[in-house]
């Protein structure tokens, strides 16, 4: 049975890290609309410039744009046997569109990563990305790589993969972090209400060690997949 998985969580919750682990475990692609849009920004096209202005201000891009990107990507051959969606859907309108896109393709498994706001702010303030290869590093990795920092200090860390310089993403500056979290609360949190009553829905404590988060995700996914196979679930999740 195909694993059609949606991961929901605020910026800094660890969706990217956990999505990569799940994709490796299940042998399915990670589909991140955020990465696709950042590639558009790098291309310098009119669409990319529009996306750049939106992301730089800490706002979400339009539903129509995101739905178009998702529909095209989910129609590619490598996604037909399952996928992990990171960053889509973010609104109820997008969730409705996703249900229509996946009609006849099996159940949708939905997991929510919960992390307190104070920890999210800490993680986002420390997060860095390699300017050469794009590898991301979270709040735990960056101090280890680059040593103690202060806001505005010159970046001295180096990527483990290619040795490139680690820099802060434009949308991770402290000036827009809290605004991004407010945008999530105002526009994305209603997804929890949209999906909550589905038997394939789970909420996971994202404040734990990443390995424990992964273990909890795998348990929740296997339980949800059992629902798809039998139509029943042997235990409830908050």
What does this structure look like?
- With about 240 residues, the chain is an alpha/beta fold.
- The chain has two domains: about 5-115 and about 175-230, P-loop containing nucleotide triphosphate hydrolases (Rossmann fold, 3-Layer(aba) Sandwich), CATH 3.40.50; about 130-170, no CATH class.
- Helix content is about 50%, strand content about 15%.
- The strands form two sheets. A five-stranded parallel beta sheet has the order 2-3-1-4-8, with helices on both faces.
- α2 packs across α3, α4 (about 65-75) runs parallel beside α5 and α6 packs across α8.
- The chain is globular and about 50 Å long.
- Residues about 145-155 and about 235-238 have low confidence and may be disordered.
């Amino acid at each position: 049975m195909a694993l059609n998985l949606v991961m929901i969580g605020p910026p800094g919750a660890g969706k990217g890290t956990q999505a990569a682990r799940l994709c490796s475990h299940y042998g399915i692609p990670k589909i991140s609309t955020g990465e696709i849009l950042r590639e558009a920004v790098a291309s310098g096209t009119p669409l990319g410039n529009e996306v750049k202005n939106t992301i730089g201000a800490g706002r979400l891009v339009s539903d129509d744009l995101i739905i178009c990107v998702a529909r095209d990507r989910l129609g590619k051959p490598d996604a037909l046997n399952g996928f992990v969606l990171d960053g889509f859907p973010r609104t109820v309108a997008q969730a409705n569109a996703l249900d229509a896109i996946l009609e006849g393709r099996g159940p949708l498994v939905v997991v929510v990563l919960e992390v307190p706001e104070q920890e999210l702010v800490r993680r986002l303030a420390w997060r860095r990305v390699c300017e050469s290869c794009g590898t991301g590093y979270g709040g735990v990795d960056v101090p280890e790589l680059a040593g103690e920092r202060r806001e505005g200090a010159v970046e001295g860390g180096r990527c483990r993969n290619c040795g490139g310089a680690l820099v802060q993403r434009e949308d991770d500056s402290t000036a827009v972090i809290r605004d991004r979290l407010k945008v999530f609360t105002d526009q994305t949190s209603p997804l929890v209400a949209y999906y909550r009553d589905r038997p394939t829905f789970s909420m996971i404590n994202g404040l734990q060690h990443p390995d424990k988060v992964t273990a909890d995700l795998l348990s929740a996914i296997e339980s949800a997949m059992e629902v798809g196979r039998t139509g029943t679930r042997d235990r409830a999740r908050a």
